[in-house]
Predict the structure.
Amino acid sequence: MVQVRVEIRLKKGVTDPEGDNVHKALGLLGFKGVQGVRSSKLFLIDLQTKDARAARKEVEDMCRRLLANPVIHEYAIAIEK
Amino acid sequence: MVQVRVEIRLKKGVTDPEGDNVHKALGLLGFKGVQGVRSSKLFLIDLQTKDARAARKEVEDMCRRLLANPVIHEYAIAIEK
């Protein structure tokens, strides 16, 4: 089994309302040194294969077809084990 | 400036509806080898400090007070740069 870690980030320049609100809330809670917060999604996907290269290719396909929106997202794939 | 990466995961045993739905959707799209999907949140926080140890402590405090729900979440903090 291969475990793949997929990070789905907003592209630079895309507004991140969740990150902005967390930033604001941290300020209200008294955390004054926060300069910025960006939020992103992480998926851990267990694949029934032993071929790390095939796993990466398959997960790239998953990102294109389901997990990421190419207009606003970029993604990073890492093979965990 | 220190950039801190915070991963907010669901604890083991906590139902992950988003992960389960992604798993189901991947199956419907023809990805047959998926054994499981877990979803989690990631925050990149820029802090106005140069002290990595102080930054970690501050972000732990943020997790306890805002970012994570201790009933269902666990978190991992990593100093990026």
